[in-house]
Design goal:
Helix content: 25-40%
Number of domains: 1
CATH superfamily: Vaccinia Virus protein VP39
Order of helices and strands: HHHEHEHEEHEHHEE
Distance between the termini: 10 Å
Strand content: 15-25%
Shape: globular
Bound molecules: S-adenosylmethionine
Number of helices: 8
Strand order of the largest sheet: 3-2-1-4-5-7-6
Length: 272
């Protein structure tokens, strides 16, 4: 199967859904003029544009501080990167945003693709309330938020895909495997998990990101940037096919995505 490889990508065993190949690395912006439903001549895979979704998300929060924070998050994870992440999400189906915070990114993904049902969970009740308010204001019927502790989440619900953006490095190391194990149980066979993390190389970018994280969470909270080999081994041990996708940024953030596909049970895999 033809596969595009970025210079710093390490491709690991396994296949990915057809929709994710070839991966986009910093694609040119596909944004349309305000209000247009997809760019002219977009071909068979149009994306629905509803004005500028980033600005709409930001404007949906009352607090100036949260709007400022959201602008910061959308600067760090700006649209080129959201497209890199979004290409791995199914265009329809149930998608979980784990540790969604204020829901900035799931609101964005819900606005971009109305066929996606986005579900966000977070421990923080204030953030979840604000995320639900923002979804209402944006008129999104496909974005839902609940207060849940993902580490103790006992549910029968299943999802076609899930993503975790900048959360794992805030968890104590010993909690990460059980945390991901519970999440795995919520994914349907063949489902996709996207983990956005901070890579531990190059060192200067790692130290810069660590400083920002420390300013956000203080000096006592755990922060651990997993070396990619360890994270990949952990995810593969849980039964995922894993591909590392480095998101190259001129800003000093060593973003890395782990694109994981849950293996189908033997005999249910489609074709060769
Ligand atoms: C660094 S913030 C990232 C928020 C969001 N994903 C983003 O990228 O903007 C981490 C979030 O994870 C949430 N969180 C931490 N542990 C959690 C858990 N066990 N279950 C659910 N949410 C959790 C925190 O409340 C916080 O909102």
């Amino acid at each position: 199967m033809a596969r595009h490889r970025g210079a710093s990508d390490a491709t690991h065993k396994g296949r990915y859904p057809p929709s994710v190949e070839p991966p986009v690395h910093h694609s040119a912006s596909r944004r349309s003029p305000e209000g247009l439903e997809g760019p002219a001549g977009a071909g068979p895979d149009p994306v629905r544009y509803i004005g500028d979704p980033v600005e709409k998300v930001i404007a949906s929060f009352d607090s100036r501080i949260i709007r400022l924070y959201s602008r910061g998050r959308f600067t760090i994870l700006r649209e080129v990167f959201l497209e890199e992440i979004g290409q791995y999400l199914p265009r329809t189906g149930r998608v979980l945003d784990l540790g969604c915070g204020f829901g900035f990114f799931s609101l964005y993904f819900a606005a971009r693709e109305p066929g996606r049902e986005m579900f966000g969970i977070d421990l923080n009740a204030r953030r979840i309330a604000d995320a639900n308010t923002a979804a209402l204001r944006m008129g999104l019927e496909n974005a839902h938020y609940e207060v849940r502790d993902a580490a103790e989440w006992d549910s029968e619900e299943t999802f076609d895909a899930a993503y975790i953006l900048d959360l794992l490095h805030h968890l104590p190391e010993r909690e990460v495997a059980p945390f991901l194990g519970r999440l795995r149980a919520r994914l349907r066979p063949g489902g996709t998990l996207i983990v956005k993390e901070v890579e531990d190389r190059p060192r200067w970018k790692m130290w810069f990101t660590l400083l920002l994280d420390r300013l956000m969470v203080g000096w006592r909270e755990p922060i651990h940037y997993w070396p990619p080999a360890e994270m990949i081994a952990l995810l593969e041990g849980l039964g995922f096919d894993v591909k590392k996708h480095s998101m190259r940024d001129w800003l000093p953030y060593p973003h890395v995505l782990y694109v994981c596909r849950l293996q189908e049970p033997a005999g249910e895999s489609p074709g060769p």
